[in-house]
Known about the structure:
Structural class: mainly alpha
Radius of gyration: 16 Å
Oligomer: single chain
Number of strands: 2
Strand content: under 5%
Strand order of the largest sheet: 1-2
Amino acid sequence: MPDQEDLQYPIGKADDQPYNSKLPFSEEAKKAHLQNIKDCPAFLENAILNLDEKQLDTSYRPGGWTIKQVVHHVADSHMNAFIRFKLGLTEDNPTIKPYEEAAWAKLSDTANIPINISLTLLHALHIRWYELMKNMSEADWQRTVFHPENKRSMKLWDLLATYSWHGKHHTAHITKLRERMGW
């Protein structure tokens, strides 16, 4: 059985990635991140393919979310990300709204709505998000938003790296669980 760190971060932490948010803007990194954003809904959908309700209600690690909660969380998170990008592109260092993701994962929509709703939402959202980002200039990537919990401004470039990792991170929670369980 993998240790807790491997279960929580199956592909490593965001800062451990080849194109992490601490690295400067580059066309090569932009291309890789945008491809991850574009591919995320399909990869997530493939990860849950043919799972039954009991499997969807299985936690990917002790104390972790269920697969169902993970899928809904990715939709919640990426909707917030899309709005953060739009704010960052249209306002001067706007303060973004943090949210209690663990509390959101316990709300009735997550508990009662089938995951295909969030997958459909992700497919549509990522088409719009990718279109928005693929046309951003290098100067646009340097625009910032202020994160009040972190008490710092973050470049849109940094957010791209984070969300590029985020989709792969949660997809790996599911695929690694499937491997461990033999599903």
